[in-house]
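Notebook entry, structure prediction.
Reason for the run: the old model in the group folder had no record of what sequence produced it. Starting over properly, with the input documented here first.
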Amino acid sequence: MSSLKISQIETKLVPGPVVYSVLYPDNYEESTQKYPLILFLHGGGDNHTILNKIKPIVEELWKRKMLLDAIIVSPSCTRSLYMDYQNGTEQWESFLIREFIPYLISKLPLDRERIIMSGISMGGLGSLRLGFKYPNLFDAIVAFEPAIEPAIEWKDVEPEDKYYRSSDFFEKIFGKPFDVNYWNINNPMYILKENSANIKKSGIKIYLEAGTEDFFGLYRGAEFLHQLLCDQNIKHEYRVVYGADHIGPSLEERFFNGFSFLNRIYNPPDTDPKHLAFRAMMKKEKEKYLKNSDYNG
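New structure, fully documented this time:
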């Protein structure tokens, strides 16, 4: 049986200690293998107990062999946006990258080549920012309904995409007066635009989704990011879930789909030799056609 444990880590970068939950797979105690790490970031107003909610879904996926055995960790990070605050009072990004992940690597039997950044809502935002900033650290990003705005720069953010965050909240994180440039350089869209070559070269796998009825309108940001990824020719999987809201019963199936994405990238379902041979043949035919054809449209 899987097991869920709670621990904490001391730090001076943020108000501490930081409490975190760890979900271990079946037979962990008897195993000698190294496990992938799935770092799951909670949404605004939530905390490390998010793992209690997704534990039954993960266990069912493990039971069906639809998710690789992994150690899943969720730290309590308040409503921080997983940011280093502009005034330096709280440094959540630095905590996660410089302290927490290295600490987990030192304490747990982890496969350093398979560290996966994931999260929901605010955590989806955090997973995208950190994944795009440090693409060589993470092997995959799984972002559920990320709380991102459909804009590259702050000047293009519409009122309907920022109404649910007060000016006091923005100023707490991005400075008072509000530092527009600091917001820009920490916006996943801006980071993707500036760091697209490194992101593409890293081969990081990306899963992105949102519901059509999300009451925060987060499907707008997800669609914008999807188009930006397409423009940069960066492979990813994008799902817009018909009828799904920001909360509610749709999340169970959506978690199921998002986590099973990891199984698809690490255990590709299509390994039929005949099909793979046919794909290789068609690739050669295409290359031959493009090389020799004088057809211009």
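Summary: Strands lie at 3-9, 18-24, 35-41, 71-75, 110-120, 140-144, 205-211, 237-241.
The old model has been moved to the deprecated folder.
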